[in-house]
Amino acid sequence: MMHKYKSTEARNCLAEKRVAFVGDSRIRQLFYSFTKIIDPERREDGNKHEDISFEEDTSSLNVDFLWYPEANNSLKERLISWIHETTAKPDVVILGAASWSIKLHRGSSETLQQYKVNLTAIAVYLERLAEDGEVYWVLQEPVNEGVLSENRKMITNQQLDLYNEAAVDVINSSKRNGRSRIKLLAASRQAALETISQSDDGLHVPESTRDVGAMVLMNSLCNKILRPIDGSCCQTIPPLNFLQKLAVFLFLGSALILLALHVFGINRHRRPVPPDVESLEEKKPVTAAVPFSPKAPFHALCRMGVIMGYFYLCDRADMFMKEQKFYTHSTFFIPLVYIFVLGVFYSENSKETKLLNREQTDEWKGWMQLVILIYHISGASAFIPVYMHVRVLVAAYLFQTGYGHFSFFWLKGDFGLYRVCQVLFRLNFLVLVLCVVMDRPYQFYYFVPLVTFWFVIIYATLALWPQILQKRANSSGVWHLGVLMKLLGLLLFICFFAFSQGIFESIFSMWPISKLFELHGSIHEWWFRWKLDRFAVIHGMVFAFIYLVLQKRQVLSEGKGEILLPGKISNLLLLFSVISFITYSIWASSCKTKTECNEMHPYISVVQILSFILIRNIPGYARSVYSSFFAWFGKISLELFICQYHIWLAADTKGILVLIPGNPSLNIMVSTFIFVCVAHEISLITNDLAQVVIPKDSVALLKRLGATGIFSLVVLLLSRSGQPSPGA
């Protein structure tokens, strides 16, 4: 993967350095493209066949082009003078030559032999320069022989290949201490193989091609200094930090304990039925449950350790390749058709026909998650209409968060600490482990902080006095007014913060809260994510309240095959829903910028969500069936969303993981299979550990929370003390 350097990044990387481009007109092209990265306003105003200088005063950077079209004694003398100089000696040298030698001597074999002799003599001094700096030899790009002028007809691709082979042989044979310090730069040549037909004169490559070569060169020079996550070449693997070493110790220790327990014959193990994160209603087994074995948590941690090792190898170690995303309509829409055909094929009868029943919400989460995965891997965020529709899907997830948790608290009235800890553990376990193993801040996995925050807000809204439940509300309609007042208070709370960015930032910038919400030292990303879907959760809560009240009053017909509402009302609502879908798609297609569309999104996304719910639930036959294919993915949607960051995508979602180079179709099949299996296994591991880590006994739970709080505080203090002071 190639990081696209901005001018500020290039200046910071190359500050107080001297860079020398040495060669013919092709090297001059590379020089211009390189300096344009540093200064995009730079003009190609130098004279042909002369030296050209470029200075960037703010960073004390000097980039020079020196006209040496042949590898001869003049070039060798220049290199010798640099070796003996201290002040004007370049830190980076980029050079290459061949086309002029072919042109002047009409491609004779004697000239090729002399080229080898000269280059052999020059390579000695290049190696010495590379001891204190960096030296690159640029391989010759191909030519478009049919377009070359008469005085260049002797410069053929066959001749250039011979000269390239000679240069590679000489440089590889100039090894000192077992390896050559001179680096071969072949990026422009590789790109020119596809684009040389677009050359105006047949010799000089198109500007877009030389820009690729310049950007690759910038990556080679700067990646090891600035360490951009999407620059996958030329970086060393950073050493493990304290928390990563602690994680390794924990996983290895668990393996040793598991081995010891196995040796002593303690094999009893039961995997409980996982409760749903939204409702946490456990299905009671028919037979008496076997109590957890001591092996269970260590077995789960061992599996987690192996999985985390795979995560680290995929996206932190330099083991697997990564590639850039390139969006086309076919890469997004064709997979979309495939999965929806599969989803329809695996249709089954629902066990219940209530509005938004469990199978239906799992199905909803499943197909939305699959769409989001395709959206991410295809790079479809570059296409604004798709981006806006996916924004509605994210809002729908948050809508379900509000709907699910409100429904549970309203119906069950369970505000106990056990359930709160269960939900928080299941939402955050994987992300917290990844924060440690992958050395990423909590806010990096933005969706989990978002749903965690909103769960806490929902809990606080409904748990605070007076606690109004359905049982209490049935006795008097006044209590319904009390719920509406609470929801109104929550709406005012949201609006206040939405229009008070300064207060919002000052609250979430306070230590230690800032540790949860900062990304790259700022909470701007958290502000953006929170504001973008700020009303989605309360929309879900209001919808749940209205639906449950109507259900209790028996206004809705939810029997099998029954239409949800009276005929005329249902037809009007269905017509409204279809029109709203079409209108939204037209509006999204007319958007000019993401910023413009995002301003409207919080206010109109709920219309699309409600339209989908109505279309999916008003017809009785639609409520009676669901897609088991989508529902299966819906049960692991959270794990899929998080795992994609590192083992399906790569470079923290900037690129695509390549397990099988050279075969994109096979690669995507293999990586997807592993990715889905890992997400499913992590879901099971999270369930196993939740049963052990979160005890039902309140005293034991409080003790563990206290210990966890103390440990977290110690880690935060250590991380804070390890940060440099602002003036450092």
* Terminal residue distance: 33 Å
What average pLDDT do the residues reach?
90
In percent, how helical is the residue content? 55-70%
Strand content: 5-15%
User: What Rg do the Cα atoms give?
Assistant: 32 Å
- State the secondary-structure class: alpha/beta
Domain Cas1p 10 TM acyl transferase: 227-705
Transmembrane segments: 246-266, 326-346, 366-387, 394-411, 417-437, 444-465, 477-499, 534-550, 571-588, 630-648, 668-689, 701-719
InterPro entries: Cas1_AcylTrans_dom
Membrane topology: Multi-pass membrane protein
List keywords for this structure.
elongated; Rossmann fold; alpha/beta; 728 residues; 3-stranded antiparallel sheet; 28 helices
Question: How would you characterize this protein structure?
Answer:
- With 728 residues, the chain is α/β, with parallel strands linked by helices.
- It has two domains: 7-226, Rossmann fold (3-Layer(aba) Sandwich); 320-720, no CATH class.
- The chain is built from 28 helices and eleven strands.
- The protein has helices spanning 7-14, 25-38, 73-84, 99-104, 109-132, 157-173, 187-195, 207-226, 242-263, 295-315, 329-345, 358-378, 384-412, 417-437, 447-463, 470-475, 478-498, 501-508, 514-517, 524-532, 536-552, 567-590, 594-617, 620-623, 628-635, 637-647, 664-693, 698-721; strands spanning 18-23, 52-56, 61-67, 92-96, 134-138, 183-185, 321-324, 347-349, 625-627, 649-650, 655-658.
- Strands 2-3-1-4-5-6 form a six-stranded mixed sheet, with helices on both faces. A three-stranded antiparallel sheet has the order 7-11-10. The chain has a two-stranded antiparallel sheet with strand order 8-9.
- Strand 5, helix 6 and strand 6 form a beta-alpha-beta unit.
